Amino acid sequence: MKYEWRKQEKELYLPKAKPTEITVPKQNFYTITGKGDPNSERFSEETAALYAMSYGIRMMPKRGVTPEGYFEYTVYPLEGIWTMSDEAIAEGRNFDKADLVYKIMIRQPEFVTEELALKNLTEISEKKPNPNNRHVKFETIEDGRALQMLHVGPYDDEAKTFEIMAKYCEEHQLKKRRLDHREIYLSDPRKSAPEKMKTVLRYFLEE
Q1: Which of 3, 100, 198, 204 could form a disulfide with 73 if both were Cys (CB 3.0 to 4.6 A apart)?
Q2: How many Cα atoms sit within 13 Å of 188 on the Cβ side?
Q3: What pTM value is reported for the model?
Q4: Mean pLDDT over residues 24-46, rounded?
Q5: Radius of gyration of the chain (CA)
Q6: Which long-range contacts (CB under 8 A, 24 or more apart) does 1-4 make?
Q7: pLDDT score for 31
Q8: How far apart are alpha carbons 71 and 52 in whole angstroms?
Q9: What is the pLDDT of residues 122-165, one digit of tens each?
Q10: Which CATH class is domain 5-204?
């Protein structure tokens, strides 16, 4: 039976369209860190590198290798942690996508060890050359206590959802422990109408 994150981990990936407090455990990811406009070709190539590595793990049995603990599963969605550059924050600049700083990532199942992840990285880099492959890392990240909410609509309208989350924090005496935030992309922008796009927005809260 295939493991479906949409069904098995609804609390993390299918929140309601209202603020919800959760605790997110440690998770393993393939990641790439970058800066600039996410509409750029470079960002698309970075995303492609992450998907290539993630599907490389998923398809290992077809390459004749079945890792210990392997199970059938659906590849996890693309995620990103976003903030503005130190310069933009210090100078109080108006929002400009060129000033964005990000770490994009795709979660990996628990059976994926660092050794396995790096082995896969080498093999896929040989089969699918991409200049961004050399920037891919395998990391363990723990969001911990957090507040999240489902945003429905274009990415450029996320401010409306963030306002609701900020108001919830104010009403419940919650404080963000970091300036950045996480986004989880549940929809494929190439296949979904902008008004139907679904994105999980997550704040990192003080304990």
Answers
A1: 3
A2: 4
A3: 0.95
A4: 97
A5: 18
A6: 1/72, 2/72, 2/73, 2/74, 3/71, 3/72, 3/73, 3/74, 3/109, 4/73, 4/74
A7: 98
A8: 19
A9: 999 999 999 999 999 999 999 999 999 999 999 999 999 999 99
A10: alpha beta
